[in-house]
């Protein structure tokens, strides 16, 4: 990251958008309709009257009953489209069934092995209805929680939409998380039903998902039923009375299921994300505002048109997939590619082959993936015809200018603009992002989306116009999370208490002389490993749950490919030997407790961790050491000798 940051600070190149792309873009057409002449005027006009802007956007969706008010803002609590009756699933499916899009493809799905399944809007609608009826029969009612633990197979969006349709709240748990992580999330959500699969293949290796879930079932007392998709047809134990096959429960269900009329503010889903403590945060999103925010940003940022083939190469287990694989593209009636596999399996041409095969026109991925492909070299994309591409996107972490340039040249054939979209699980939609009409600077997320008032603040709350500081948002937006599930005080304390009535993003950013934003990364103890948010506290508590570990400190170590790597320092109990075997055991242990993404790349054994006299671990010192930076003032350390011990461990 250090090197990337230096490059970011020096970047001065500007890429002007293509004239034709600009004049045909959704945003330009909308501006023309409203007599808005340019980008500056768009930002000014929308910032002056956000409610006017969002009212316009909400009018594109179907409301069972119209809303009376666009926004009620009692900081830090927002309600959008008050008293409106709405259902996001109706907007994602039913209205297309009643229109010319009925037989249009909603998803083209490809498995890791290359198997293809295609769903028209009508087919998807029917599958959703059948599962929705089955869930109802299991006793699932409006407001009940359903945990979904599925790999990237079509049943995943189907399950989400089925929940939304009947007013149940889904909580998707990323299939790369393992037993304990699932347990913690499903228990917190008090889910009644879990939907999972027998297993799935990752790089050719079978991972048995249902077995993982079985390990922790007894610790989730609220769970009554487990619905299992036969995905790999591997062996598994089905517990009588509790476990049922998806195929069997939907078999005799009707293909029609009435859509629950929800209040605009009713909850749609909980998605757990990492915070600064070990306990994941249950970020809660609602039907109305989320639908409007997610679909508007997709329409204007990625310029989705009816003829486009959209591919967001994320996992639905994360917010990017929720917003931009499931809800927004379906609301817009788009055709999406959905891919189960990994970018470089069986070879580094896999992504480019998919782009060629389906004629993908808009492609959205993460900088870590781009850097992986840079490593393999341009000979891989050069083998494929990717002329259909017209817009590219980036999300999840700062994109360093070298990666931006490589993406632009070798994937975008020097003609596709790159939408570097900054946002978060909490924001639900892009907040700082280019539009197809804006000049781009490699590594900058450009400016706030229309209506969004972003600022950079110093510790005292002064607004900065240059230099780095806390990235904050000053006003509400429709797809903002409404609370943290079961922790309303944490919602206020974590996000809204540092500066009055202001959303604290947890990121550091800098503004340049043109008002462009340069996001520099997290400022808290949250790591960003290959675009995945991981809390240091969560990894630490997984480590100390191993019998050999007395204490641990986890920090991020800069890595050119993944952005950050997990570095752990552990103090062992007296009876344990510091040997390589134990390191492997600890890595395995974290893998089992959280998932492979949280397994430390580096583990160092130390006798003691640097601490203040009050016993607080001084992470700042550890961080400086792993980055080979100066440790600064250590006069408050109770045990200065621990710093030398860190050196030896590194
Ligand atoms: O640090 C920022 C980084 O990802 C964090 C949010 O992670 P998560 O909630 O998992 O959502 C990821 C996908 C939206 C942010 O706090 N981040 C996300 N997008 C960018 C980014 N950092 C820099 N540039 C981005 N475009």
Automatic annotation (TrEMBL):
<dbReference type="InterPro" id="IPR042099">
    <property type="entry name" value="ANL_N_sf"/>
</dbReference>
<keyword id="KW-0436">Ligase</keyword>
<dbReference type="Pfam" id="PF16177">
    <property type="entry name" value="ACAS_N"/>
</dbReference>
<dbReference type="InterPro" id="IPR000873">
    <property type="entry name" value="AMP-dep_synth/lig_dom"/>
</dbReference>
<dbReference type="InterPro" id="IPR045851">
    <property type="entry name" value="AMP-bd_C_sf"/>
</dbReference>
<dbReference type="GO" id="GO:0019427">
    <property type="term" value="P:acetyl-CoA biosynthetic process from acetate"/>
</dbReference>
<dbReference type="InterPro" id="IPR025110">
    <property type="entry name" value="AMP-bd_C"/>
</dbReference>
<feature type="domain" description="AMP-dependent synthetase/ligase">
    <location>
        <begin position="100"/>
        <end position="477"/>
    </location>
</feature>
<dbReference type="Pfam" id="PF00501">
    <property type="entry name" value="AMP-binding"/>
</dbReference>
<dbReference type="InterPro" id="IPR020845">
    <property type="entry name" value="AMP-binding_CS"/>
</dbReference>
<comment type="similarity">
    <text>Belongs to the ATP-dependent AMP-binding enzyme family.</text>
</comment>
<dbReference type="GO" id="GO:0016208">
    <property type="term" value="F:AMP binding"/>
</dbReference>
<keyword id="KW-0067">ATP-binding</keyword>
<feature type="domain" description="AMP-binding enzyme C-terminal">
    <location>
        <begin position="538"/>
        <end position="616"/>
    </location>
</feature>
<dbReference type="GO" id="GO:0003987">
    <property type="term" value="F:acetate-CoA ligase activity"/>
</dbReference>
<dbReference type="GO" id="GO:0043955">
    <property type="term" value="F:3-hydroxypropionyl-CoA synthetase activity"/>
</dbReference>
<dbReference type="Pfam" id="PF13193">
    <property type="entry name" value="AMP-binding_C"/>
</dbReference>
<dbReference type="GO" id="GO:0005524">
    <property type="term" value="F:ATP binding"/>
</dbReference>
<dbReference type="InterPro" id="IPR011904">
    <property type="entry name" value="Ac_CoA_lig"/>
</dbReference>
<dbReference type="GO" id="GO:0043427">
    <property type="term" value="P:carbon fixation by 3-hydroxypropionate cycle"/>
</dbReference>
<dbReference type="InterPro" id="IPR032387">
    <property type="entry name" value="ACAS_N"/>
</dbReference>
<feature type="domain" description="Acetyl-coenzyme A synthetase N-terminal">
    <location>
        <begin position="39"/>
        <end position="92"/>
    </location>
</feature>
<protein>
    <recommendedName>
        <fullName>Acetate--CoA ligase</fullName>
        <ecNumber>6.2.1.1</ecNumber>
    </recommendedName>
</protein>
<keyword id="KW-0547">Nucleotide-binding</keyword>
């Amino acid at each position: 990251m250090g090197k990337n940051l230096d490059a970011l600070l020096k970047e001065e190149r500007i890429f002007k958008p293509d004239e034709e792309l600009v004049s045909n873009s959704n945003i330009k057409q909308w501006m023309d309709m409203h007599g808005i002449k340019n980008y500056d005027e768009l930002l000014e006009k929308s910032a002056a009257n956000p409610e006017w802007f969002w009212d316009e956007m909400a009018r594109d969706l179907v409301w069972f009953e119209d809303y009376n008010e666009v926004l009620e803002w009692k900081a830090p609590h927002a309600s959008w489209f008050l008293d409106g009756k709405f259902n996001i699933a109706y907007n994602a499916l039913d209205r297309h069934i009643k229109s010319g899009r009925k037989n249009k493809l909603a998803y083209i799905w490809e498995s890791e092995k290359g198997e293809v399944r295609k769903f028209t809007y009508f087919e998807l609608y029917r599958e959703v209805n059948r599962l929705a009826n089955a869930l109802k029969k299991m006793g699932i009612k409006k407001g009940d929680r359903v945990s979904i633990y599925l790999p990237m197979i079509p049943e995943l969006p189907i399950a989400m939409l089925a929940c939304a349709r009947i007013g149940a709240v889904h909580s998707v748990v990323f299939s790369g998380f393992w037993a304990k992580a699932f347990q913690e999330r499903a228990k917190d959500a008090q889910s009644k039903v879990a939907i999972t699969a027998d297993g799935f293949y990752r790089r050719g290796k079978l991972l048995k998902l249902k077995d993982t879930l079985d390990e922790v079932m007894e610790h989730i007392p609220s769970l009554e039923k487990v619905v299992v998709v036969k995905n790999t047809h591997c062996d598994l134990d089905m517990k009588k009375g509790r476990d049922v096959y998806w195929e069997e429960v939907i078999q005799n269900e009707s293909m029609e299921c009435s859509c629950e009329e929800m209040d605009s503010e009713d909850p749609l889903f909980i998605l757990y994300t990492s915070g600064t403590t070990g306990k994941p945060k249950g970020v809660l999103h609602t039907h109305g505002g989320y639908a409007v925010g997610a679909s508007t940003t997709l329409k204007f940022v990625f310029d989705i048109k009816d003829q486009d083939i959209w591919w967001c190469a994320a996992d639905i287990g994360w917010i990017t997939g929720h917003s931009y694989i499931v809800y927004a593209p379906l609301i817009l009636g788009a055709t999406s590619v959905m891919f189960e596999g990994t970018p470089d399996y069986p070879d580094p041409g896999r992504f480019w082959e998919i782009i060629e095969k389906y004629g993908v026109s808009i492609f959205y991925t993460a900088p870590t993936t781009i850097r992986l492909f840079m490593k393999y070299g341009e000979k891989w994309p050069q083998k494929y015809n990717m002329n259909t591409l017209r817009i590219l996107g980036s999300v999840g972490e700062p994109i360093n200018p070298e990666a931006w340039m490589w993406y632009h040249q070798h994937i975008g054939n020097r003609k596709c603009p790159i939408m570097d979209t900054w946002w978060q699980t909490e924001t639900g939609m892009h907040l700082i992002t280019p539009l197809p009409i804006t000049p781009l600077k490699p590594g900058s997320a450009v400016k706030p989306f229309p209506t969004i008032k972003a600022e950079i603040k110093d510790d005292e709350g002064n607004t900065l116009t240059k230099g780095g500081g806390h990235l904050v948002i000053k006003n509400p937006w429709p797809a903002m999370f409404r609370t943290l599930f079961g922790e309303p005080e944490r919602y206020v304390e974590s996000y809204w208490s540092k500066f009055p009535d202001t959303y604290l993003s947890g990121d550091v950013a800098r503004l340049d002389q043109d008002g462009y934003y340069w996001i520099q990364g997290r400022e808290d103890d949250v790591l960003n490993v290959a675009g995945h948010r991981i809390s240091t506290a969560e990894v630490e508590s997984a480590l100390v749950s191993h019998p050999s570990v007395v204490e641990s400190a986890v920090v991020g170590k800069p890595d050119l490919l993944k952005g950050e790597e997990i570095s752990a320092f552990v103090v062992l109990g007296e009876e344990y030997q510091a040997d390589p075997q134990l390191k492997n055991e600890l890595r395995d242990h974290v893998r089992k407790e959280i998932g492979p993404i949280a397994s430390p790349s580096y583990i160092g054994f130390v006798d003691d961790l640097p601490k203040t006299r009050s016993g607080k671990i001084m992470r700042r010192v550890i961080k400086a050491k792993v980055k080979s930076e100066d440790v600064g003032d250590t006069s408050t350390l109770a045990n200065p000798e621990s710093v030398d011990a860190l050196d030896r461990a590194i």
